[in-house]
Design brief:
- With 243 residues, the chain is an alpha+beta fold.
- Among the domains are: 61 residues, no CATH class; 30 residues, no CATH class.
- The chain contains 3 helices and 11 strands, in the order E-E-H-H-E-E-E-E-E-E-E-H-E-E.
- Strands 3-4-5-6 form a 4-stranded antiparallel beta sheet.
- It is flat.
- It binds zinc ion (2 copies).
Length: 243
Amino acid sequence: MGLFDRKICDICGGKCGLLGGKKVKDGRLCSDCAKKQSPYLPGRKNFTVEEMKQHLADRERNQEMINEFVPTRTIGRHLKLYIDDGSGLWFITSTRRYQDDNPDLFQADQVLGARVDIDRDEREVVVQAAVPAADGKPGKPAVTKKVIEYDFYVNIDVSHPWVNQMHLKVNRSTIESTMGPDYRESDRDSKEIVAALLAMRDGVAQMKQEAAMPKQRVTCPNCGALTMPDENNCCEYCMGALN
Ligand SMILES: [Zn+2]
Ligand SMILES: [Zn+2]
């Protein structure tokens, strides 16, 4: 074995980079294969080669579905939530040409939770440098100013074979004031994205609950019989419409 013999990718059989590729539990991936994985996969080293093969096959299927995806609505300006209300599928990304990014697709009932997380960073910046004492004149201390910066994030918990959690930045660039439109709009985007995700989750939960609820006998307003509504919500005796 020469010094420059490259290691082989356990997924595609291609050559790994000079540094030996990306390690998984029981093997390695080349960078081309590693690039195809979900950015939200929790730690590549936790997965075996077989699991990574399954994951990349799922990612290929995801790409096909993304290519066919037609959103009925989008929420947000920079970070965008894409929803197809017909199928209940959704994804979230800040990449404009999202097909290139293959964002993970989720179903409405895969939302476990969502919340806004505002990152506030406070620091002192020097606006005027210190002047050292010289020629018998006293020096001057540096003039500093307190700067507070904000970044908005949404944290989303999902029930999905490969993704548990996403931590996504809402604003494009760091916000330096709570007064401007950037803060206001990022605040609104964050809240609207979270509200839409929770509405999907709660909507599905409610539908499941209603479907699971046993039908109850009602008194028919037409014939007065105690009747079980049929599939058209009509009386089983007189066929009259119930309510
Ligand atoms: Zn490979
Ligand atoms: Zn009746």
